[in-house]
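Protocol step 4 of 6.
Sequence for C-di-GMP phosphodiesterase A (Komagataeibacter diospyri) entered exactly as in the expression construct, tag removed. Do not edit the line below.
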Amino acid sequence: MNELLLSPPSRKPALSGDAALALLHDATEAIVVVNDKNDIIFFNTGAEKLWGYTQGEVLGHNVRMLVPDFVWHEHDGHVAHNRETDASTIIGISREIIFENKHGDYITGELTLSSSPVGPKGAKYYLASIKAVTEENHRKKLLDLQNTVFQSLSTEMQIQDVADLVCREVENFVPNTVAILVLIGEDHRLHVLSGPGLPRRYAGALENVTLSDADIMALSNDLDEAATVVWDSYKSLGVSLGLHHCWASAIKAGNGKISGIFALFSRNLNKTSDWPQKVVAGCVPFCSVLIEQYDARHHISQLANYDPLTGFLNRTAIHKVLKTLVGKPGDNHFAVLMLNLDRFRDINDALGHANGDDFLKAVAIRIKSLCRSHYILSRAGGDEFVIILPDTKAANATAFAETLIAGMEEPIEIGGNFLAASVSVGISMFPENGPDSESLIGHAEAAMRLAKKEARGTFRVATPEDHAAAQDRLVLGSALRESLAKGLLNLHYQPQIEAKTGELYGVEALSRWHHPHLGNIFPSRFIAVAEDTGQIEAIGAWCLEEACRQIVAWDRDGVMIPAVSVNLSAGHFRKRQLPEMISNLLTRFGIAPKRLTVEITESVMMDENKDTMDVLNAIRALDVGLSMDDFGTGYSSLSRLTRLPLTEIKIDRSFIMNLEHDANAQAVTTAVIGIGNRLGMTVVTEGVETEAQYELLESLHCDVMQGYLFAKPMAPKDLEAWFRQPRKIMPAMRKALGKKQAPGQPKSK
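Step 5 output, structure tokens:
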């Protein structure tokens, strides 16, 4: 040892070797000296206190006995590297270390290591000075961890990741341990939120635990009772997995609820100091905040992904599930079922929305009872539900649909009423019906709509033709929206001629669409797409404004068009703003109300809704005409007809096609003309193409005719040219006119 205390040859020692040794021996810090063979040759009083060994127990032994097992490989490697190269990151640097004392306690210390060549051969000796870390240092570590947790919670960092961070940091504080954070749910069931180092079998055992009310009360009274829950009952299992001790504390939320448990398990056979329990207790406050954040985010997730009424996934969440299923590798097949309740609106209207909600909840329970546990359930909105059947082929999906429809027929009691839940079901299959969630949901919905249209209370399976139609709607719908925004639609106008005089009665405005890439799109095609995509009302509003603008332009150019008829969808007449919109247009363009006629469909006629009737009456109050379009093609009610404020009826062209040869068509046409005349309405017949049809209709006293016999639909400029030319006059007209031409009109030919 005295060799270490020799001064360089050029200087005289300030102290004798014995005096220096005495100073080192009595120093409060632990001093350990190791020779070139890694044997301990000096161990002072401070070291005896720190490690709990006497000098006699350590001198002459390899220094490895003072180093914990889990850092042996690191320790030996660092020392060997320094001896061979003199390059080191361990010499002359103060750093914190963890070591194990004689009693098995892990102790933290601050190490400073120096080295010096000794003797003629320059053998390298090491002197280690270790200062025990105080309790204050431990508290600072916990405070730093707490700050890290709070900062992490204020970011977008996942709660799971924050919990893992806590467990790993605590395991660094107390080496050779396993930290876990356990949640206690509303049902008192345990859920391991984090335990990166916990053996899977032990975690599985804890996940099966459901606490009793007595257990919760015991934890509330004494937080340290947590060790009984997570350790005492599973000690044998823990020991078999290499766990030997446990420190635990229950976590109490701000509202007094026991929300979780934080625990620390030791792999050390010897019982350590009370430092682990202090670590656990120090972690409890910020673990409580962490769990509160977890609950809050979980609640937000519930609101974002689950339907509050039924507890099923909502529409957003079901798309996420479908995206995951579509992305699964291998030969993947599954079915998507879209359910819609038949006549649910009647239940709401008859029993009120509260009972309607109760009915939806009861339906959801019934659906769940008919489904297998791995089926995925969603309420897509309103009275629509989605069921996903994983790993299912079409035959099994249709069999389940039949079971579902039959199972829903048993009446459900709501508010003292027994109601049968009839459902219409659409089925789409992956991969047959699309590569993504939108396609699958869209095809299932289209199939469901078809079932409702053809036979309520049945199911339909989406077909490739449905897929093509859906693609057509998608492409045309997008193009139509763009064309409408850019003003690419236009109106053509077909003249309407008074049957007796040949004079111009008015024109009907008809939408036309020429797309720069898709070409001319037939009205029957794009109007259907507009109805399916919700653009029909925008087209109707545009038609009204464009017709008014054209009337003004014709007036300016001396083309006097008595009236323009504009078709509107049924949806327009459910909006109370429609009369005001029409009134504003008339005022804005300075047009007399009688020069505008609004055409309604029979679906509007059959709508008993008070709002619809109020809108129709308000339009007539403006003195704007109201025409019943395509009368006789639907389910018209004559009694309903008498209550509507109509000014004209239009007979559909389907009755005129075989009018000369079909007695039934003649009978219906005669009846409609007679009804219209008796009700004081103008009767307009569409599709008149031959003189024979004209003669027959005129003999039946039809008021106005429209068809290719007189003119086809024309662009505004073409209509202007037609207006200025002589018109076709039929014999009956010539007779009525007395062979005289009205003043200001073009000569007849």
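Step 6, annotate. The domain at 333-462 is CATH 3.30.70.270 (Alpha-Beta Plaits).
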